Amino acid sequence: MSRTRSVVRPDQDPGRSGAPAVPRRALLAAAGAVSLSAGITVALGRSAGGASASSAAPPAPAVRALSRPAPAAPLAPYTRGTTLAAVSTPSGHGPYRRLGEGPGWRRVLRADLAGARPGREARRRAVAAFVQFTDLHLVDVQHPLRYEYLRAATASAWRPQEALSVVGALSLVERVNALRGAPVTGSPLHCVMTTGDNTDNNSRVELDWFLGLMSGGRVTPDTGDPGHFEGVQGSGLPLYWQPESGLRDADKGLGFPRIDGYLGAATRTLTSPGLNLPWYSTVGNHDFLPGGCWAPGDGWATEIATGGRKLMELPAGRGGAFWKQVMKGEDPKGDLFRELLRTEARHLRPVTPDERRAPVTPEEYVRAHLDPARTGPGPHGHGYTEENLDRQTRYYSFALTDEVLGVSLDTTDFGGHYEGSLGQRQFEWLESTLRKAAQPYVIVFSHHTSKTMRNPRPDPARPGERRRDGAQLLDLLERSPKVLAWVNGHSHKNAVTAHRGLWEISTASHVDFPQLARVVELVDNKDGTLSLFTTLVESAAPSRTDVHDLSTPGLAALYRELALNAPGARTTLGGADTDRNTELLIQKP
């Protein structure tokens, strides 16, 4: 059964009869927010559409954001709208804790790589500023390829908040649109960079939602039967939170509420204003691999993903051993997964087939970014170019500013497993790009961290190619004096690590609590040192929730609170003070 696309341009019909559209265009001018048209003009003019090191891309159309009125001068430094001013903070001691607004997190000076010299506040000059999104994990919660039934084995198999991932990401877009430039310097924000796992199930429909949210459009986070929710939260199984049922499920036993109308509200059509900044895209393992860990293979994933049967439960104890094998990388091709589905066929439930759930190939992923309908404020392709299509690559470099070269890597291993590595061809390209960089500074972006690139499996498309791990990549970056920072995600945790001559900045996901994005500012202290300021931001949703408020802001707030209370969720993902709002000193190259 074929379904209409779930994301359309703002002037088109949302394609779902009876679903009310929920306008979410933020009143930016009224709120004193900044469209940062000056920064957008600079970024579009200089980046030439995110060209790779060896060729230029088509010029980026000046669309949407550039037509907005020029902003008033930003006030800096400022804290409002950032975690410096306030942070959503849990209260109470029961199994289900409520959120409210708590005190902000302080900024911490880190002088691991250079000494702090007095008077730099008066001397500093802004060089670049950008926002990092990572691990949005936009989830089609009705997707047949999902392995929610492994919940007893791993908390990441299913999260109670996942049905609200799209509305939560929309609220994050609104937060960034309302920022007054860079919090420390007032510099225009030059771009937003996503560092992978933009989608969750490697599906076309999730990619469609992602592009609609980022560049603007109507998004309907629903698949299968538009009149009937077919995911685990409508199954009546006590393993999962059944929000609209009186069933005493496992989560209600922990204080999760009953919310009538929740599933209908979670799947209704939304309208995203799109970012008012240029944005660039980096891929993660969930963007390219079925389940985030299995090699695409011979089409088996397409058959399951678009089909009409979904596994929602397993006999007690059945999934633990299987998941341990996946964690160890012993099922890179999904053979054990398919065998599990075969042997548990009696537990499969019927669902409505939907072709939009098909896995996305790397070519389709790049081509979707190049669609002119998805350009938004630019650049065209969001870093990817026709050269990426021709060469079958997903890495590129771009001029973040005149002084800073951005480099986006593809650390996904198509041989399978959720950890990453770098192919030799890409490694040599990076080495050459760093050596030839015209800009005095370089910032590198990837999905995986230095500690999660331990997967040496060869790419099936290049079976003889050597794979490089995180230690070898880090060594290359440390030997390149222009590289100031390596910005990544994957671990879902805030962590800032000093290496030999560069900072590794890892940021928490937006699917697990505390659901953060990060603003990074580079400044020249004019004393032989540079500072990288990192400032975390939450979505625009209010901290305090009303669980029966099914408006879009109400659902976005609930998304955060449900994430806080997700059983088994790690409680250390926010990191320490030294991993959050920081000033990171480094010697000037």
In short:
The protein is α/β, with parallel strands linked by helices.
SSE inventory with pairings:
Layout: E1 7-8, E2 22-23, H1 37-47, E3 86-91, E4 98-103, E5 108-113, H2 120-123, E6 125-133, H3 165-177, E7 191-195, H4 204-215, E8 217-219, H5 262-266, E9 270-272, E10 279-282, H6 285-288, H7 300-305, E11 309-311, H8 318-327, H9 335-343, E12 348-350, H10 362-370, H11 386-391, E13 396-399, E14 404-408, E15 422-423, H12 424-436, E16 441-445, E17 467-468, H13 470-478, E18 483-488, E19 495-498, E20 503-506, E21 517-524, E22 529-537, H14 552-565, E23 582-587
Helix pairs in contact: 3-4, 3-14
Strand order of the largest sheet: 5-23-22-21-6-7-10
Number of strands: 23
Q: Please give the largest β-sheet.
A: 7 strands, mixed
End-to-end distance: 58 Å
Mean pLDDT: 89
Percent in helix:
10-25%
By oligomeric state, this entry counts as: single chain
**Rg calculated over all Cα atoms:** 23 Å
How much beta, percentage-wise?
15-25%
Total helical elements: 14
From the helix content, strand content and strand pairing, which structural class follows?
Answer: alpha/beta
Give the overall shape, derived from the CA principal axes.
globular
Low-confidence runs of at least 5 consecutive residues: 1-73
Description:
This protein has 589 residues and is an alpha/beta fold. The chain contains 14 helices and 23 strands. It has helices at residues 37-47, 120-123, 165-177, 204-215, 262-266, 285-288, 300-305, 318-327, 335-343, 362-370, 386-391, 424-436, 470-478, 552-565; strands at residues 7-8, 22-23, 86-91, 98-103, 108-113, 125-133, 191-195, 217-219, 270-272, 279-282, 309-311, 348-350, 396-399, 404-408, 422-423, 441-445, 467-468, 483-488, 495-498, 503-506, 517-524, 529-537, 582-587. A 7-stranded mixed β-sheet has the order 5-23-22-21-6-7-10. The protein has a 6-stranded mixed β-sheet with strand order 13-14-16-18-20-19. The chain is globular, with a radius of gyration of 23 Å.
